[in-house]
Amino acid sequence: MMTRADINRNYVRPDITPETIIEYFSIRGGVSFVELQNYFEGVKGDFDWGNPKLNIWFWFGMSEQSIRVLQSALDTDVLKMTPTSPFVYLADGSIPRVPIAKRVQKYKTERWVPVVFNRGKGFPS
Fold it and tell me: Which of 51, 41, 85 lies closest to 71, judged by CA?
């Protein structure tokens, strides 16, 4: 079992899986994509996650596996995604060089929605 000290020492899991997500979120909340990328080695990749029809993106440079795991956790309400301030990402050390989406609409150029993950109603107790 991972402890808060493990997280604080930048303990790196080899892969992001449903099990490691549960373990990580059992002691963390308000987690940004930067924190996920820093903790789980398997998060970085060549895919962008968002709504391509609207040109709105949650995050860039993710692995297909990490998108699948996170989307499944959202679909089952294990996790919930909540809008947050871009200052969270500034504090975490990375902000995309893309304008922020101000509302849900179709944009001509890429827009970013800063979000964090928290436990959902379906999170195991």
Answer: 51
